[in-house]
Design a protein that fits this description.
Layout lengths: L5 H8 L3 H23 L5 H33 L16 H17 L3 H6 L1 H19 L5 H29 L5 H13 L1 H12 L9 H9 L2 H10 L5 H6 L3 H19 L26 H23 L2 H7 L4 H12 L4 H9 L5 H19 L5 H28 L6 H53 L8 H5 L1
Helix pairs in contact: 1-2, 2-13, 3-4, 3-7, 3-8, 3-9, 3-10, 4-7, 4-20, 6-7, 6-10, 6-11, 7-20, 8-17, 8-19, 9-10, 9-16, 14-19, 14-20, 15-16, 16-19, 17-19, 18-19, 18-20
C-alpha cells in the first residue's frame, strides 16, 4: 500500500523554487506508484465493470455520430436539404449537414480538449454528453437547413469533447495487459449503435409517424442518452492517474485501494506486488507536444487523422446515398445499409482476439489495405450479395482501424497532456471531415461512385505509409514507459 508523505505534500505547496523541485520529484514517484498498482491488476469483473460503464456512454456517442448517414435520405425526402449542392461549399445540401457536425467536432477536440486535463475525466465525460444530447433535442424541432446545421454544429462541440475524454478515461484505468481489449470492447458497444440507428431509420425515415418527419424521431430517440448519463456518472470514479498528476494523491490512493480490494475479492487471493514504478514527469503545457519524442508522434497522427477520415466517413456517412446514386431506391438502400450495419460491432469484437497480441500499428496498416481493395470492388458491385459482402468487409476493416487508432493516439502521449494532445491530433480528422463532406459530394456528382472510392483508396494508402513508417511500438508497455 502506498504511503502518502505529509512532508512531501507540504513541500509541494511551498512557493520556493527548491521546494517545487522536491515536490515534483515526490509527485513523480507517487504518480508512478499509482500507475504501477493499476497496471498490475488482473482483469477481473471489477476492472471490466468500470470499462463496461464507459462503454455504455460510448453507445450514445456512436448513435449520435453515425445517425448522420441514416437520416440523410430523410432530410432530402422532407425537402429541407438536397443530395448535391450547386457549388462546392453549398450549405443547403447533405454535405452542409455533415460539415456542420464535423465543424463542431473540430472545435470540440481542438479547443476544448484541455477541459478534461484541467477539470478531470469524470465531470467532462458527464457534461459533454448532456451538452450534445440537448443540442440534438432542439435540432429535432427545426425546419430550415440553416437552423438544423447550427444545432448540429453545437452538438458536434459536445461530442468532440466526449470522444477525447472517454479515450483518456479508458487508457488510464485499463491495466497495460488489456488496454487494447478494453478499447475494443468500448468500441464494440459503441458500434452496436450503428445497427440500432440503421434499423430505426429503416422503419421511420421513409414515413411520417403522427405527421412528424421520420428523421426527427430517429434523433429524438437518441436524446434518451441524457436520461442515462446520471446513472453512469454515479458509478464511475475519477481517473487515479489524473488525480496523482494533480497532486491529489490521497484521493488517487483511496480509489486505487478500493479497486484493489474488489479485484482481490474477485480473485479470492492476495494481489501480487506491483512492479517497480516508472518515473512520471509532470506535464501540463501544450508546448510539450512539440518536444521529442512527442513531436514526431504528433506529426504522424496529424497525417493519419487527415486521411483516415476520408476512408472511414467517406463510406460510413455516404453509403446510403452512394447506393441511391447507383440506382437503388431509398427504401432498398436503407435495407442494405441496415444489413451492413449489423457488422459494425463485430469488427472491434474480432479485434479483442488480437488487440493485445499484435502491434496496433501493424493492424492499422493491414486493415487500411483491406479498405482499399474492398472499396474499389464495391464501386463495381451490382448484385445484392456482392454489395452486402463488400459493405460488411469495409465496415469490419474500418471499425478495426477505429478501435486501434483510438487506443494508439491515447497511449503515445503522457497523462499530463493526454487529453489536449490527443484532442489536438484528433481535431485534424474533424477538420478533414469538414472538407471531405464537400469533396465527396463534388466527386460523386462529377465522377460517380468509382471516383469516390478512388479518392478513398488514395487516402488510405497515405495512412499506411504514415503509421507504417513513423509509428512506435506500444503493445504490452506501461503508459509511462511509452511516454519515455
Amino acid at each position: 500500500m502506498m504511503a502518502i508523505s505529509t512532508e512531501a505534500a507540504s513541500a509541494f505547496k511551498m512557493p520556493t523554487p527548491g521546494s517545487r523541485e522536491v515536490a515534483a520529484r515526490s509527485l513523480a514517484l507517487d504518480a508512478g506508484e499509482i500507475s504501477a498498482r493499476l497496471d498490475r491488476l488482473p482483469p477481473t469483473r471489477a476492472v471490466w465493470k468500470l470499462i463496461a460503464l464507459l462503454a455504455l456512454g460510448n453507445f450514445f456517442e456512436g448513435y449520435d455520430l453515425l445517425f448522420t448517414a441514416y437520416i440523410g435520405p430523410g432530410l432530402i425526402r422532407s425537402g429541407i436539404m438536397t443530395s448535391t449542392t450547386p457549388g462546392l461549399f453549398g450549405m443547403t445540401g447533405l454535405a452542409g449537414f455533415v460539415a456542420a457536425l464535423f465543424s463542431g467536432l473540430f472545435i470540440g477536440t481542438l479547443a476544448c480538449g484541455f477541459l478534461a486535463d484541467r477539470f478531470g475525466r469524470r465531470a467532462i465525460f458527464t457534461y459533454s454528453l448532456l451538452w450534445y444530447c440537448g443540442a440534438n433535442l432542439i435540432m429535432c424541432f427545426q425546419s430550415t437547413a440553416f437552423a438544423i446545421n447550427f444545432w448540429r454544429f453545437l452538438a458536434g462541440i459536445g461530442l468532440g469533447v466526449e470522444l477525447i475524454t472517454i479515450g483518456c478515461y479508458i487508457s488510464e484505468f485499463a491495466p497495460k495487459q488489456i488496454r487494447g481489449r478494453a478499447f475494443a470492447l468500448v468500441q464494440a458497444v459503441g458500434f452496436t449503435a450503428v445497427p440500432v440507428v440503421s434499423f430505426i431509420s429503416y422503419l421511420l425515415v421513409p414515413i411520417d409517424p403522427f405527421g412528424w418527419d421520420g428523421w426527427r424521431w430517429v434523433v429524438l430517440i437518441g436524446c434518451a442518452g441524457a436520461v442515462c448519463v446520471w446513472f453512469i456518472r454515479r458509478a464511475l470514479p475519477e481517473s487515479p492517474r489524473w488525480l496523482a498528476m494533480k497532486g491529489r494523491l490521497e484521493e488517487a490512493d483511496r480509489i486505487v485501494s478500493d479497486l484493489e480490494r474488489k479485484v482481490a475479492n474477485d480473485c479470492g487471493s492476495k494481489l501480487p506486488p506491483p512492479a517497480p514504478a516508472e518515473p512520471v514527469v509532470p506535464h501540463g503545457k501544450f508546448a510539450e507536444i512539440w518536444v521529442p519524442p512527442y513531436r514526431s508522434r504528433a506529426i504522424m497522427m496529424i497525417i493519419f487523422n487527415i486521411f483516415q477520415t476520408v476512408g472511414y466517413y467517406g463510406f460510413a456517412n455516404w453509403v446510403p446515398t452512394l447506393l441511391i446514386k447507383q440506382g437503388i431506391t431509398v427504401s432498398t438502400s436503407l435495407g442494405y445499409t441496415t444489413l451492413i450495419a449489423l457488422a459494425a460491432p463485430v469488427g472491434p469484437l474480432l479485434g479483442m482476439l488480437i488487440a493485445d497480441r499484435i502491434e496496433r500499428k501493424h493492424v492499422i496498416v493491414v486493415m487500411a489495405a483491406v479498405n482499399i481493395i474492398c472499396g474499389l470492388l464495391f464501386s463495381q458491385a451490382s448484385s445484392t450479395e456482392a454489395i452486402i459482402a463488400l459493405g460488411v468487409s469495409l465496415t469490419l476493416a474500418g471499425n478495426i482501424i477505429s478501435y486501434s487508432y483510438h487506443t494508439y493516439q491515447q497511449e503515445i502521449f503522457p497523462t499530463g497532456i493526454r487529453a489536449r494532445a490527443a484532442g489536438f491530433v484528433y481535431s485534424w480528422s474533424r477538420f478533414s471531415a469538414i472538407l471531405n463532406a464537400f469533396f465527396i459530394a463534388f466527386t460523386l456528382q462529377h465522377f460517380g461512385v468509382v471516383g469516390v472510392f478512388l479518392l478513398i483508396g488514395g487516402a488510405m494508402a497515405i495512412v499506411m505509409l504514415a503509421i507504417g513508417l513513423m509509428g512506435p511500438r506500444t503493445r504490452g508497455l506501461e503508459l509511462e514507459k511509452i511516454s519515455h
